[in-house]
Amino acid sequence: MNYTENYRGIKIDVQSVNLDINAAVQEEIRSSIDKLSKFTPDINAVDIYFKTEGHGGTAKSVVGMRVGIPGPDVFAEEKGEHWIPLVKDVVDKLVRQLKKNK
Fold this sequence. Notes:
Elements: E1 2-7, E2 10-16, H1 23-37, E3 45-53, E4 60-68, E5 74-80, H2 83-101
Parallel strand pairs: 2-3
Antiparallel strand pairs: 1-2, 3-4, 4-5
Helix pairs in contact: 1-2
């Protein structure tokens, strides 16, 4: 499932390989963008990918997020079990990067 949306003037591009992203995860993505916007008002685009690595009992969920801002973009990735906590962890990493770049 891939989808693109415009949220508050920010282009969101979500890519997921052989996965469907439910409404709760989509809402978490929007609230994450609100959180990131507090640290930099200049976000142009956000690219997010969801994928699963491995098979069966060893499968891991992976979330990666690139935030397009003037200058070098910031990127973070996290691996784990559940999508929403992974999105939150990725956003926390991005916030640290944005604070460091100020």
